[in-house]
Amino acid sequence: MGDQNSQPITPAELTPGTSLGAALLALNNEHAQELSWLEPARLQHLVEQAFMARRVGNLDAFLLAFDQSAQYDSPNFLWFRSRYPRFVYVDRIVVTSTARGRGLARTLYDDLFENAVAAGHERVVCEVNTQPPNPASDAFHAALGFVEVGTASVYDDSRTVRYLSRALPASAAR
Fold this sequence. Notes:
- This protein is 30% helix and 28% strand.
- The protein is of the alpha+beta class.
- A seven-stranded mixed β-sheet has the order 1-2-3-4-5-7-6, sandwiched between helices.
- The protein is globular and about 40 Å long.
């Protein structure tokens, strides 16, 4: 089964020619319909801006999330930034087809929730495609306690999304 702990992805690991960078890009782009296509420089920029960039195992799964201060031009991210002063936005999460059903997405989200609470955030947000539909993601996010807070048509009406939010408990450190 291998290691199921979440570990950081660093910008240095994504420099041109690295095996992790190539594998991460390939995994992302295999799921471009759900996520969006990335070029190497864009992936590098996203990891540099990330509140949290994590993977499980060699690359069984990965998650990229941003807080409100990220330099990011995604229309979905900007939708949340225009409505909430503080948040952590899950931009992309992928589990390889051979690693599904092992709880890796849950591991990454649990790590994200813990880090977001420790940083004083009140909510984690994301979007799920409704057109094209993504019923597995809908069910997963509902099970984690996410609720719909809006909808939009994006990318020249090629996608329709539901915006989701999950409130976080207050940090004891605040």
